[in-house]
Amino acid sequence: MIKLKNGNAMEFMTTYEGEKYVVTISNTTNTFKFLGNDYSYFILSSAKKIKTYSNTAHEKVFLTIDLYGRLFLTTYKEEMSSESGDRMDETYCLVADEKDADELFKSGSAILGREPYVYSDCCNHIMVREKCKSNDEVI
Question: What are the φ/ψ torsions at residue 46 (nearest 5 degrees)?
Answer without folding.
Answer: -100, 10
